[in-house]
From TrEMBL:
Record organism: Actinomycetospora chibensis
Basic and acidic residues composition-biased segments: 124-139
Stated name of the protein: SPW repeat-containing protein
Alphabetical keyword list: Membrane, Transmembrane, Transmembrane helix
Keyword Kinase appears in the UniProt entry: no
Amino acid sequence: MTSGAVPRRPTPRVRHAASLAGAVLALAAGWWVAVVLDARSAPAVTAVLLVVPVLAVLVPTHRLEPVARVVLAVGWVLALDTVVAQVMLAFGVWDVAAGVLAVTGISVAVWVGVELATRRGDRAAEERAAEERAAEERAAGPAVEVGP
């Protein structure tokens, strides 16, 4: 049974709030795996090291094409996980729990940063659209009424 109703998209404010709530949940998941589980569960560690960075890129880039979002997310995961591991190994501080916390923290920081930048861009686009509408109304001039 299909109705002719078009699904409504969430308002930008609701979408941003949901995204930031997701970032907080991702941070909590990373902390839980690293601290509570002490990084002893390989599937949980793997999930956090892969899922949190992917979400950090996929969620805020909702306006991009799906293929571009996937390529960006996979590249981000590979780059972030590799760089964190290399830096920690170079300084001799490698620890699975610390790696999970580092990847989670960096991912959530990027997530929030991109989300806030997107919100700022949305506001600027709305302001530009309002200015363009006002300019079009001024250019059209006052409406002239023609008598009967």
